[in-house]
Amino acid sequence: MPMKKILFALFLIVSVSYFPLISNANQPDEMPTGVEKPLMVIRFNQPNVYYQLPLYRAIKKALSIYPNAFFQVVSVVPTTGNYKSDHDSAQASSGYATQVTNVLSEMGLPPTRMRLNYTSDSAASYPEVRIFIR
């Protein structure tokens, strides 16, 4: 069995056996200002991107440091200047971002603790989702 499939299976087992990761607090903690480096970048550069386990670990670690953290999920659309290509990338990026927010919800993060945004980036080669702590 390939390592990616084993990791994904492990993620499913772990995610089902853990209680929700967060408390019921609704307000984000004070976060350091000027921090623009994403907690995680998920690049969708192949048909099956196994990001769930690394996402779970990153969110769990962030919440251990900032228990009331708020997460901004940013869908990044690569732009080429070609209308059809950019339109297709925008639709794919939107779908990927929705998948990531659904995974976060399944992990126990309520919708009130995350926000979904969209942006374009001519430097991006593939659709990606960036997750920031706010």
Structure description:
- With 134 residues, the chain is α+β, with helices and mostly antiparallel strands.
- The chain has a single domain, classed as 60s Ribosomal Protein L30, Chain: A (2-Layer Sandwich), CATH 3.30.1330.
- It contains three helices and four strands, in the order αβαβαββ.
- Strands 1-4-2-3 form a four-stranded mixed beta sheet, covered by helices on one side.
- Helix 3 links the parallel strand 2 and strand 3.
- The longest helix is centred in the C-terminal third of the chain and has 24 residues.
**N→C terminal distance:** 38 Å
DSSP E strands, number: 4
DSSP helical segment count: 3
Tally of discrete structural domains = 1
* Principal-axis shape: elongated
CATH topology: 60s Ribosomal Protein L30, Chain: A
CATH class: Alpha Beta
CATH architecture: 2-Layer Sandwich
As a percent range, the share of helical residues equals 25-40%
- The radius of gyration computed from the alpha-carbon positions, rounded to a whole number of angstroms, is 16 Å
Major sheet attributes: 4 strands, mixed
Mean of pLDDT: 80
Strand content: 15-25%
Keywords, please?
134 residues; alpha+beta; 60s Ribosomal Protein L30, Chain: A; 4-stranded mixed β-sheet; 40% helix
Put the structure in a nutshell.
This protein is α+β, with helices and mostly antiparallel strands and 134 residues long. The protein has a single domain (3-17, 31-133), classed as 60s Ribosomal Protein L30, Chain: A, CATH 3.30.1330.
